[in-house]
Amino acid sequence: MEKAIFAGGCFWCMVQPFDEMPGIHSIISGYTGGHLENPQYEQVKTGETGHYEAVEIEYDPQLFSYERLLDLFWVQIDPTDAGGQFQDRGDQYRTAIFYHTAEQKQLADLSKQKLESSGRFKNPIVTEILPAARFYPAEEEHQDFYKKQRKAYKEDRQQSGRDEFIDENWKN
């Protein structure tokens, strides 16, 4: 098993796209990249901890490659938005790929370059590629939120504008 960490705005919206794919062992919502040890949701949402809301994915690279994870990550986000994602604003909602190995960094860099050269977006791709930092799992109520709180998840996702952006920018 290997691990991948992606920040794509609200972590609630970053679990379902990866969940139940062959080779995906687990997906944990949490916090990474900041300066505060053992952060809590109420602290992270202030935007003052330096942490990103992120997901840590444990996967079997023989069944689901890192390249496939990257491809799936990009189509969940607006990679040109440095101020957050959709309705969620602030540093804690920035996008990033956190790499664990030199190979992950190389593959992430290549995928970003491919997206930049595709001409899909007029604005620059601002998603950062950073070394993996300590990952702190979020509180239990944030784990598998889309399953546990279906109605609230659907309402939040609908209000966010994420699905409209995906349909408009990625479905071709």
Automatic annotation (TrEMBL):
Reaction(s) catalysed by this chain's protein: [thioredoxin]-disulfide + L-methionine + H2O = L-methionine (S)-S-oxide + [thioredoxin]-dithiol; L-methionyl-[protein] + [thioredoxin]-disulfide + H2O = L-methionyl-(S)-S-oxide-[protein] + [thioredoxin]-dithiol
Entry protein name: Peptide methionine sulfoxide reductase MsrA
Function text: Has an important function as a repair enzyme for proteins that have been inactivated by oxidation. Catalyzes the reversible oxidation-reduction of methionine sulfoxide in proteins to methionine.
Active site: 10
The Peptide methionine sulphoxide reductase MsrA domain, residue ranges: 3-154
Keyword Oxidoreductase tagged: yes
Primary gene name: msrA
EC class name: oxidoreductase
Family annotation (Pfam families): PMSR
Superkingdom: Bacteria
Region (Disordered): 147-172
The species this protein was found in: Alkalicoccobacillus plakortidis
PANTHER family, per database record: PEPTIDE METHIONINE SULFOXIDE REDUCTASE, PEPTIDE METHIONINE SULFOXIDE REDUCTASE MSRA 2
InterPro entries: Met_Sox_Rdtase_MsrA_dom, Met_Sox_Rdtase_MsrA_sf
Signal sequence range: none
